Amino acid sequence: MSANPRVVAADTVFRWDGALQRLARGTVLDVAPGSALLAAIGPGNLVPLAATAAPEPAPATPASAEETAAPEPEQRPRRKGNGAETAPDTAAPADAGGGEQM
Hints:
By secondary structure, the chain is α+β, with helices and mostly antiparallel strands. It has helices spanning 36-41, 49-52, 65-68; strands at 5-8, 12-16, 19-23, 28-30, 46-48.
């Protein structure tokens, strides 16, 4: 990038080194402030590049590893046993042991 970038605001014809020179609108030049070239082109024909450039978008902040990681699959509660659920036996209570009935 140049130290003093300027954009030609309108098509301009000026004399430089004894010859006519033509600058097309939109041409970017590096012209130092107060220089003979600036006087020849005309300060009103050159606009500082910073004044014509659109502001750049703010750089994106890097996402944390947690934000960029793939989402984990939803965890389901696991069943105990072989997966075949059996209904509790309601016909007779389980024998608690302790001998025979009288």
